[in-house]
Amino acid sequence: MRIARFSLDGNVGFGVVEGQPSDPDGPVLDIIKGHPFAEFERSGQKIPLNKVRLLPPVLPNKVVAIGRNYAEHAAELGNEVPETPVTFFKPSTAVIGPGDPVVYPSFSQEVHHEAELAVVIGRMCKEVPRERVKDVILGYTCANDITARDAQQREKQWARAKGFDSSCPLGPWVETGLALEDIAAGIGVMCTVNGEQRQLGRTSDMVRPIEDLIVHITEAMTLLPGDVILTGTPAGVGPLVPGDEVAVTIEGIGTLTNKVIKRG
């Protein structure tokens, strides 16, 4: 099931995306009653997807990101795979949705794309045992961990480099049909810039699987419904400049596209 968050005539809601772009009338949204973090009903009121504005699929209280979770990406930046997961935060103000602009930060001259599979948490949880991880996941979406690489390298903390406004595109929706076994077996993660492929990896190349990441994170903190975990990026990260169109495509989910613009 693909669950989207949308805006129409000033109203915000959730809907289930039905159909494919190849359908004669394109995909439609079946608006749901309530929200996706509890049992919900479909209203039967259907709207063409192209008539709404897609928003970030969730508004996370926090985004917990994992660094260097693909060995080839760690190597391309001259780093070793860490003994324990590298975790950092992106604030909720960093989150934007599909089609929203990535605003180039004034303090950086080197901004990079990082295509990532994002996990969306479905229920409040703490100290999750490995065998219960699947029970706390609502689904998955595409993410782009936009990074001010020069700031990351010169500052000991990554808060500004990773957390500036518009540095966390998410979308286009949450896919609930993927299983942890599918991700362990490997689904494709791709990034293109202006239609040119930059990154192409598979989730089977993660150093640590999602189960290990959630166990590690929830040992320290409570995750809330709608919180997001970024699972790391494959090799091939590279620069973005104003005017670029960057797209993250994840097999079984869809494509998240954003344009980079100058500030002001």
Structure description:
This protein has about 260 residues and is mainly beta. It folds into 2 domains: about 1-55, SH3 type barrels (Roll); about 65-260, Alpha-Beta Complex (Fumarylacetoacetate hydrolase, domain 2), CATH 3.90.850. It contains 5 helices and 20 strands. Strands 1, 2, 3, 4, 5, 6, 7, 8, 11, 12, 14 and 17 form a 12-stranded mixed sheet that branches. β15 (about 190-195) and β16 (about 195-200) form a beta hairpin. The longest helix has 9 residues, at about 210-220. The model has no long low-confidence stretch (mean pLDDT about 95). InterPro entries: Fumarylacetoacetase-like_C, Fumarylacetoacetase_C_sf, Rv2993c-like_N. This is FAA hydrolase family protein. It comes from Streptomyces palmae. Keywords: Hydrolase, Metal-binding. GO terms for molecular function: acetylpyruvate hydrolase activity; isomerase activity; metal ion binding.
Short description:
Residues 1-57 form the Rv2993c-like N-terminal domain. The chain is mainly β and 264 residues long. It is 12% helix and 40% strand.
> Judging from the principal axes of the Cα atoms, what is the shape?
globular
The biggest beta sheet, please? 12 strands, mixed
- CATH-defined topology of the largest domain: Fumarylacetoacetate hydrolase, domain 2
Order of helices and strands: EEEEEEHEEEEEEEHHEHEEHEEEE
Please, what is the average pLDDT? Answer: 96
Pfam families: FAA_hydrolase, Rv2993c-like_N
Protein name: FAA hydrolase family protein
InterPro entries: Fumarylacetoacetase-like_C, Fumarylacetoacetase_C_sf, Rv2993c-like_N
Keywords: Hydrolase, Metal-binding
